[in-house]
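Researcher: Next entry in the queue.
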Amino acid sequence: MKTLATIALTLTLFTSLFAQDVMKYGVKHIKVLAEDDKVRVLHFTPSKGDKTPVHSHPETVLYVIKGGKIRTTLADGTSTVVELKDGQASLRPPVTHSDEALDDIDAIIVELKK
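Model: Structure for this entry, 114 residues:
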């Protein structure tokens, strides 16, 4: 049990150590629409094939304007394909991941700062 706790703590510290703000990459398909000390609003408009390097988000609200499929790879290497639906809204926990658009997508991401 002690080993499991040590592994979990190590993964958390490793993820935090290498967590990056997505805006530091200058990715063309992510733009800041508004920001203050409590929230940041991002416009996420990748075209099919666009990739975003490993980065982190705090808790977020996602609103999908134009849906499509996206492949998300978590910090531990696990990968999933998710289909975002037009008009979908979801609350998401903090995450460190990379992604690849499998379709053209248009979404708003609201990051909740603590």
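Model: Helices lie at 2-18.
Researcher: Noted, moving on.
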